[in-house]
Amino acid sequence: MNHIHRMLRLASFSCAVGLTLATLRAQSATGSLTGVVANAATGSALEGAVVTLPSLGRQELTNPSGRYTFANVPAGSYPIEASYTGLDLVRQPVTVAAGRATTVDLDLNSNVYQLAEFTVTGEREGSAAAITRQRNAPNVKSVVSLDAFGNLANESPGELLIRLPGVTPRVTDDGDVFAVYVRGTDSQLNSVTIDGNKMATSGPLNREFRFLNVSAAFFDELEVVKAPTPDMDADSIGGAVNMKTKSTLGMKEKRRINYRIGAKWAASFWEQTPIRGKHPIHPLTSLGYQEIFNVGGGERNLGVSLGAFYSENASSYANTIRDYTFSLADPAYVYDYRTIDGYNVRTQRSGTAKVDYQLTRSTRLTFSGMINDAFESLGQSYTTRMFSGRTIAVIGANGQPTGTNAILPTFTNTLTEVRPVASSQFAVTSGTAGFFDRQRRAQLDIEQDFGRLDLDGSLSWSRSRVAQDSSAGGGGSFVSDVRSVGWRLDQSGSTEFPALTQTAGPSILDPRNYGASQYTRNNSGRRGQVYVVNGNAKYDLPLERPTSLKGGFRWRRQESAETGGDRRWNFAGPDGVVGVNPATGRNDDDLSAFLYPVERTSAYGLGPIPFAHVGTVSTHLDQNPAQWREDVYFRESDPYLGTRDVAEEVTAGYLMTRAKLGRLGVLAGVRVERTEVEGTGFARQRTRTEITDPLARVAAEFGNSRREVKGSYTDTFPGLHATYAFNQRLLGRASWSSSIGRPAFTALVPREDVNLTAQTITVNNPSLKPQYAENYDATLEYYFEPVGLLSAGVFQKDLRDFIFNDSGGVVGTGFDNGFGGDYAGYNINSQGNGGRARIRGLEVGYQQQFTFLPGWLGGLSGFANYTYLTTEGDYGGGASVSATQVQ
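The structure corresponding to this sequence follows.
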């Protein structure tokens, strides 16, 4: 395979050199031809319209303002043509004079706009623009208009992205699109940008972009790039998602105002969780304002776009979790069974502004800004948990179980019975979330057109600050349990709604039987910032065939940090002693004041389980601090364990060429990226449980524990892309590209977590290397009217050094085991780089507007797609493993 890679690289560079050094043809007396292409019915300027001088074999695409320019046109008379998806081709004569600039504006129309006045054209225009953008692209990508699917239920961009080929969702417990996977790769391995630049993420030290906290109301289009070109960031193993904000200068009218007023209603006649049924209605509203002004003596040269959005995305869920024994034997028993009821309201309020200023005919400035607040203050969850030790009881000669092992040996794949021994417990957890994400973003773009030479650049800054503070409003989590409980889990009737029965031990329905109660308040935070500076220069060579050179640079600094500060207390009761007071022989830790029966949907068969009201617990702590005992070690150690930061700088430069050789279009080039990363964190030196004083223990474990890591590397990413127009409707694409998947930030900082109960040590790996992919794509796209597209493609990704979770290590014995002689026999969980992996796939997509249907049916659209993936790989040893083991 290596010689194939070398041949492809040689072909890429040979193509670039050959196209760049082509002989300049002699020019006669020439002039220039320019103009604007617009939709005759709406007046909107059309970006990506194809303008052709057939007799000269020359072709140009209009820019975002709908403008086209032909330089060095021989003097004379010619026909000129313009075409655009969904509109009829227009053709008219034009005369070019030597030494002069000739202006010809072209208006396109279509029969669809001759229908009744009530016909809505916004969706048609949006879809046509998106399809046009995809058709004109030099590489493999999918583009969709935000209008294409009408109103999105939660106004989240993720709801639209998952309807594109190769894109699948990562959803929350309550079913909302949290992040997206592209072509089977993890969401952290896909680049997400707004107007071409990355936005800070609210995730904890990771690269995953969370779509929940951004409104789709502010965007025009979404595009998913499957094969990156050299002028794009290379960090997109699966693909790159770009969200384009709305612009104003292309409007026909002077002013446009749009609004949406709605609400979500949880109907009482539909099955709801009890909590959701008590909060049935939540609003969703948006307001948009766009206007064009004449300033500085210009005409329609200043466009202003403002937007506001508010929504309460209420959701509820009920689910179950079963943990089976760590065994490949059949049958297997369940040792841990949980049920969860949840209710949450994700509130979002946003404001955006975008100003487009056409300073001169060839100079354009754009400023855009976003203020976005997303918070959760009503999130509630109720969890029940039945669990025991993973030990099988021994049956004695009398036919009765002996010893303290928990699981009766009569278990089957659908039935587990647990004895009321010390390791068998029942726990309830009540939680109230506190989450606030403040996002800010600003970007300045400049475009300068010098005829053959186009310059553009941008400055971008974004920030995300997350506060996870549950102290306000009495939030946090409260857990208590009942010990020595016997239980029976029967899944024979239903795996989704199994029957859970208490068979022995103190009643779990009586609040007086609960103890070991612990209350936790969150007071942690996260922050992230992204700075971007980039510039590009594109030069149209004076060749017989349309050929251009493009080069540029990009500098990006991404910062991510976490701070810890959580606290927790154990309930001691009026005597101030947790559990039994040795002086009195009594346990006065009565939880009756906190626990009350809660109607549940998922605690199947258990009855009205008593849960704590977290607000009541919080108030009691504040008013009766003497009845609580704070975990001082937890309070003092969490700022060490929860505080870490990473900064990454990527400096890149690229050079590429693009040419149109009749039906064949070619793009070739190379990108170079230099990555520098530094991080700091605290690594616990040893777990010193023998030190009883909590402050002394923290000092012993974390004294001089601050660690710094630094690293840098340089990578080269060549690429070669080709398109071929078999006819006006059928287009073929082929791409070879390369990309990188950098490690998650959380893996780059020193950290060591010891779990004494599970006997595991989780260790970060700051020396983790990036993973790389070479991508091969071949696609056929068939475009048809009215506004339709059918596509089918195959792809292959060859990955090396892919990152995987490694849990195969065991701590050795002796003082030199890396942990000062401690933790011998503990399992080590970390991350490592594997060997090679391969992803192969097939994608089929279809979309069409049915405007040819009569009456109201003409407003319908159809979308469908199918993706098939297969993966294989090894972990460096050469042995292939199954698809489910390759991440």
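Helices lie at 2-20, 122-136, 157-161, 274-277, 614-623, 632-641, 694-702.
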